[in-house]
Amino acid sequence: MLHLRVISPPEQTEALLAVLAADPGVTHVTLARGMAVEPAGDLVQADLAREAANTVLADIKALGLVHTGGITLGPVATVLSDAAEAAERAAPGDPDDAVVWEQLQAETHEESSLSATFLAFLTIACLLSSIGVATNSAVTIVGAMVVGPEFGPLAALSVALVRRRWRLARRSMIALVVAFPFAMAVTAVATLLWERLGWITTEGVLDAHNVDFIYQVGPFSLVVALLAGAAGMLSLVSAKSAALVGVFISVTTVPAAGYAVVAATLGEWHRALLSAGQIAVNLVGIVVAGVLVLWLRPRTASLPESVERRRRALGEQRAPGR
């Protein structure tokens, strides 16, 4: 389940309570009048089934509380309550199939930011992958896959395309377009230094057959990218974050970037170009799979149905004798 926390101006609290009461997927509703300080108002809290979250949030946003108060939504680790079980049974669909759009957009928005931390992680991942190529170490390549943060912007781009949030799409594209060249440039400088020191040689890279899979583009490159993208998006929308580790290990986006740099500095342009192709295949495949997963997810009640239900609830709340 999810926990909802709303700060509401006193004059809008009754309408908010009516909206919550109108949805059978909402329970554990509490009210603390005058408890909120900034912004000032009443504090209303409730637990709701994931399947009910989209319509409930649409109802609350329609009241204008995003501007006059505040809305917070987060997961609940453990709930022991017959009322909660009844709310989950009453909500249509299955909790694991429900996409909470506001929550998903907030998570991917944060992960798609071009920040110093994002640049640092991607640069470290590229450096690790170049070392893995130089030392013929598949274990180091796997480490680079896990460290790479590129799935965040790719997932955000998928969400942006489905929801038509072009600002989020632009933010994600900027993160990818800026971060990858930066990380590869730093890796190139480091690789040139290691080559001068004799740590990396052309013969060593050409004989590194344990990591040939990085630049060898084939039909399974796209298949793996599609499967990894689908698994990653499913893990995000179902709040099963443990599956993301498997996704990171499956795709060779960052290792391909590291391999391309090492191959280019050694003059192996054919392998460098193949590695660049591997990067493109993985990026496109992950985004396409993410979009397909979001499109194919079971839909909950539509926005018009939600607004109509809210109007009925408000009408009952304002009727004489209530």
Automatic annotation (TrEMBL):
Pfam families: DUF389. PANTHER family: AT15442P-RELATED. InterPro entries: DUF389. The keyword Electron transport does not apply. Keywords: Membrane, Transmembrane, Transmembrane helix. This is DUF389 domain-containing protein. The chain crosses the membrane at residues 114-135, 141-162, 174-194, 214-237, 244-266, 272-296.
